[in-house]
Amino acid sequence: VFALDSIMQNWFTLFTPIEATSIFATTVMSNSTIVHLHLDYHQQEKLAHSARTLALQCAMKDPQNCALSALTLCEKDHIAFETAYQIILDAATTSMSYSQLFTIARYMEHRGYPMRAYKLATLAMTHLNLSYNQDTHPAINDVLWA
């Protein structure tokens, strides 16, 4: 447990942000890892805290690639989830594409946050420029969903 925690605290020397969130932290937090290592509740919480911290750091550094993983890893901690959501809102205007924002909006709706989904979908549409005759554009289904 100490070794995993140490790796998560020093992730930036070993992994890119997307590797750290989508592969490493997700694997560490999986049920199979917890069962395999016979972790008690305290150990699980310590690793979960480190994984959430890692996810938020990665989302700050690379929001385009780490935002959804950060939200997923932070689901069970309200404050961390709110922080990840705020990071996404801050990055939405500058560094995220409409497709990324629509994907996160659908995730928010699936998790039971319709108003947040709406806000993200609205932000996504500000990045999108469609003419009246572009009914085959890849984003049409997302726009109709929103």
UniProtKB/TrEMBL annotation:
It comes from Callipepla squamata. Keywords: Metal-binding, Zinc, Zinc-finger. Pfam families: ZSWIM4-8_C (PF21055). One of its GO terms (cellular component) is Cul2-RING ubiquitin ligase complex. InterPro entries: ZSWIM4-8_C. This is ZSWIM4-8 C-terminal domain-containing protein. GO terms for molecular function: zinc ion binding. The keyword Metal-binding applies. It comes from the Eukaryota. The keyword rRNA-binding does not apply. Residues 100-146 form the ZSWIM4-8 C-terminal domain.
